[in-house]
Design brief:
globular, 4 helices, 7 strands, 7-stranded mixed beta sheet
Length: 190
C-alpha cells in the first residue's frame, strides 16, 4: 500500500499485521481521487484542488485515504480511530510525513461524535466495518453537531451488496463499484 499522488507520491505505508481492518486499495483510492478532481471538487465545492479542503477521516484504520489527501495538499485532516492496534499503525504512517502539523489524530469512536472546537469540514470519508449499520448514525451525528459545511462531499465505502440508507439531508450523487467494494459519492445539503 502506497501514496499514489501529490508531494509524497510512492511513499509506502505500514499495514496492520492482523485483519482487523481492510484498507482501501490503491486502485480504489486512485479512482476516488480522480473522480474528486474531475467530477466533484469544482462542481460542488468551487475549487479545482485540495488546498481549501478540510477532511474528516472517520474509521481511519491505516489512514491511507486521509494521508493521500494530505499528500495532495488538503488544508487539514482529522482522523478518528478507536482500535488501539490500528492507532499504532496510523501513527506510524503519519510519522512518515515530514510535515504533519495540520494532521490531528484522535482515539475516538466515530459513532459517538459530539460537539467539537475544530471547525467544519467539507470532505468526509467514511469507511466503517461492513454490515454493522454505522454509516447512518455517524451521518446523523455529523449533521446534529454541526460538523459539516453548507456543501460537503461525503465519500462512503461499503461492500457491494450492503444497503446504506442515507438521511434526507444527504444526496447520493453516484455509486461506483471497485471489486468487492462500492464507493458512494454524496453531497450534504444543509
Amino acid at each position: 500500500m502506497r501514496i499514489i499522488g501529490g508531494n509524497n507520491r510512492g511513499k509506502k505505508l505500514y499495514t496492520p499485521e492482523n485483519e482487523t481492518i481492510r484498507p482501501t486499495t490503491d486502485r480504489t483510492r486512485e479512482a476516488v481521487f480522480n473522480s474528486l478532481v474531475h467530477n466533484y471538487l469544482a462542481k460542488y465545492l468551487n475549487t479545482n484542488n485540495f488546498l481549501d479542503i478540510k477532511l474528516f477521516d472517520c474509521f481511519a484504520g491505516t489512514g491511507a485515504f486521509g494521508l493521500e489527501a494530505y499528500s495532495r495538499g488538503v488544508k487539514e485532516v482529522l482522523f478518528y480511530e478507536k482500535n488501539p492496534a490500528n492507532m499504532r499503525v496510523l501513527k506510524r504512517n503519519i510519522d512518515l510525513f515530514n510535515d504533519h502539523s495540520n494532521i490531528t489524530i484522535e482515539n475516538k469512536d466515530a459513532t459517538e461524535i459530539g460537539s467539537h472546537h475544530m471547525g467544519k469540514y467539507n470532505l468526509i470519508f467514511l469507511d466503517p466495518p461492513y454490515y454493522q449499520g454505522l454509516v447512518e448514525p455517524v451521518l446523523d451525528r455529523l449533521h446534529k453537531f454541526n460538523w459539516l459545511e453548507e456543501k460537503t462531499l461525503i465519500i462512503i465505502e461499503k461492500e457491494n451488496n450492503e444497503v446504506i440508507n442515507t438521511p434526507d439531508f444527504i444526496e447520493v450523487l453516484a455509486e461506483k463499484k471497485y471489486g468487492k467494494a462500492s464507493i458512494l459519492y454524496c453531497l450534504y445539503k444543509s
